[in-house]
Specification:
It is built from twelve helices and no strands. It has 249 residues and is mainly alpha-helical. Bound molecules: iron/sulfur cluster (SF4).
């Protein structure tokens, strides 16, 4: 007999069922922010996005994708030339090497095409589970898993939807239990949009956040902020009183 589902998982799924429509309404156009016109372009853009902003990647790929149009183009370019072309995305030696190796594997093992399964994608150079999820979910519309990046990690923790602070694979395992599979790719986009606009890492705007009534962390952050401000006011008052006393002496 299958074990009954823990109450915690049922509660989290219930919370997601409330949060998801709110986010969908807030960000009706949420989508992958890496510009691409094919699975290969999305794969290359995602490899380049490691430790780099999507905006910077989009600037670089605008000219990159005009120059390299197929797996063969990426496979046959000299390392130094590709390094120059992707330099401004950072870690460019490694990224250029991975893109060339990945493209060579596409030619040798997949007829120059990007494969459509997790098992075929993850052995490719520079392609981890996160990159594979991005490609499968956005280029092929296949929801095999949930993409967990820095925003998804932070928001999943703040919203109390995972037990794992930073392990992306374990966070993904928690999320696939509670987010409807048809929304897995969209879920990541929605959390990324909300993380950039409202639930920012350093200064989350909890007071104006539409998720506040459903977020276990928001009230704590608001209380901590109020306490910090009250502490500052007390310190400022004490300093002013000290100055007055000094003048009076
Ligand atoms: S209430 Fe605060 S912590 Fe919670 S999701 Fe909103 S901004 Fe983030």
């Amino acid at each position: 007999m299958p074990r009954p589902e823990p109450k915690k998982v049922r509660d989290r799924r219930e919370r997601v069922s409330v949060i998801l429509p709110i986010l969908k309404q807030l960000y009706p156009d949420a989508t992958c922010s890496l510009d691409h016109a094919s699975p290969l372009e999305l794969l290359v853009a995602t490899i380049l996005s490691a430790q780099c902003t999507d905006e910077r990647v989009n600037i670089v790929t605008k000219t990159l994708f005009a120059k390299y149009r197929s797996a063969a183009d990426f496979a046959n370019v000299p390392q130094e030339e590709l390094e120059k072309d992707v330099q401004s995305t950072g870690f460019y030696r490694n990224k250029a090497k991975n893109i060339r190796l990945m493209a060579q594997a596409l030619l040798e093992q997949h007829g120059g095409e990007v494969p459509r399964t997790m098992d075929e994608l993850t052995p490719l150079a520079g392609v981890g589970r996160k990159t594979a999820n991005v490609v499968l979910g956005n280029a092929f519309g296949t929801n095999v898993g949930v993409t967990v990046d820095t925003h998804v990690t932070r928001l999943s923790n703040r919203l109390g939807l995972t037990d794992h602070e930073s392990d992306a694979v374990k966070i993904e395992q928690d999320l696939v239990k509670i987010v409807p599979q048809e929304d897995w790719a969209l879920w990541s986009h929605l959390l990324i949009y909300h993380g950039r606009r409202v639930c920012q890492a350093r200064t989350p705007l909890c007071e104006v956040c539409d998720l506040l009534p459903h977020c276990p962390t928001g009230p704590k952050l608001i209380a901590a902020k109020a306490a910090a401000e009250a502490g500052k006011a007390v310190a400022a008052a004490a300093k002013a009183a000290g100055r007055r006393k000094g003048k009076g002496a």
